[in-house]
């Protein structure tokens, strides 16, 4: 496939995402995330493979900075600690590597963000269950329809595709905008 053909696919999905009517869901995700972070409550993010990198990317933007000077925010990527991941997966199972960390770092009133292009990754689903039991708000970044995650997410940001790499590309646009708007909101409401 040529670069031009690949980018045509990407552009088509970004256009479809633009027309998919996600504005209200994004507004809700911003409200929930900004409210939690303003109170110092945790935002926990996880995913597998490329989405594990996306979880770390989000934490990097919000712990550090996106576009504005403001204080560091309580955002943790659950894919970021190899010792925790390998010990738990080795001693127990991979399905609970994220839910165990939600148990450890989650708080009532915090936000859990699960990223899965299929919407069906078992470890993300298990973490969503624990997040809900703990009284956290749940946000899903998924592909078309949200798969099994749909019914476990208070807010679903589903990209209208079933092609994993292109869904991930659209996810970056969604979470960069989420970070921009959360940062703007938190910067207004808190002292540096
Ligand atoms: O980055 C990619 C594909 O672009 C892969 O690493 C991909 O993330 C992995 O296959 C994941 O395990 C897919 O999981 P999910 O998105 O269905 O939850
Ligand atoms: Zn990838």
Automatic annotation (TrEMBL):
Cite the EC number.
Answer: 5.3.1.28
| Xref: CDD domains | SIS_GmhA
**Locate the SIS domain: which residues?**
33-192
A single GO BP: carbohydrate derivative metabolic process
Q: Which reaction does it catalyse?
A: 2 D-sedoheptulose 7-phosphate = D-glycero-alpha-D-manno-heptose 7-phosphate + D-glycero-beta-D-manno-heptose 7-phosphate
GO molecular function terms listed in the Swiss-Prot or TrEMBL record:
carbohydrate derivative binding; D-sedoheptulose 7-phosphate isomerase activity; zinc ion binding
* Reported cofactor(s): Zn(2+)
- Pathway(s) where this gene product acts: Carbohydrate biosynthesis; D-glycero-D-manno-heptose 7-phosphate biosynthesis; D-glycero-alpha-D-manno-heptose 7-phosphate and D-glycero-beta-D-manno-heptose 7-phosphate from sedoheptulose 7-phosphate: step 1/1
Co-factor note (free text): Binds 1 zinc ion per subunit.
Database matches in SUPFAM superfamilies? SIS domain (SSF53697)
Q: Where in the cell does this protein reside?
A: Cytoplasm
Instruction: Read off the PROSITE patterns from this record.
Output: SIS
> Any extra detail in the entry?
The reaction produces a racemic mixture of D-glycero-alpha-D-manno-heptose 7-phosphate and D-glycero-beta-D-manno-heptose 7-phosphate.
The UniProt function text for this chain reads: Catalyzes the isomerization of sedoheptulose 7-phosphate in D-glycero-D-manno-heptose 7-phosphate.
Query: What PANTHER family does the annotation carry?
Result: SEDOHEPTULOSE 7-PHOSPHATE ISOMERASE / DNAA INITIATOR-ASSOCIATING FACTOR FOR REPLICATION INITIATION
Q: What is this protein called?
A: Phosphoheptose isomerase
């Amino acid at each position: 496939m040529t670069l031009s053909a690949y980018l045509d696919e990407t552009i088509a999905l970004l256009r479809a995402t633009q027309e998919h009517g996600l504005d209200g869901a994004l507004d809700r995700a911003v409200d929930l995330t900004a409210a939690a972070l303003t109170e110092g409550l945790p935002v926990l993010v996880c995913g597998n493979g490329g989405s594990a990198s996306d979880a770390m990317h989000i934490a990097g933007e919000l712990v550090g900075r996106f576009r504005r000077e403001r204080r560091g925010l309580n955002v943790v990527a659950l894919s970021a600690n190899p010792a925790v991941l390998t010990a738990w997966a080795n001693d127990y199972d991979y399905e609970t590597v994220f839910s165990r960390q939600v148990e450890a770092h989650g708080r009532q009133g915090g936000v859990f963000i699960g990223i899965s292009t299929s919407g069906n990754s078992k470890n993300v689903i298990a973490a969503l269950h624990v997040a809900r039991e703990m009284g956290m708000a749940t946000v899903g970044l998924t592909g078309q329809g949200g798969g099994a995650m749909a019914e476990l997410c208070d807010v679903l940001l589903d990209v209208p595709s079933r092609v994993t790499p292109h869904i991930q590309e659209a996810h970056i646009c969604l979470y960069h905008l989420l970070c921009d708007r959360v940062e703007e909101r938190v910067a207004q409401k808190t002292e540096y």
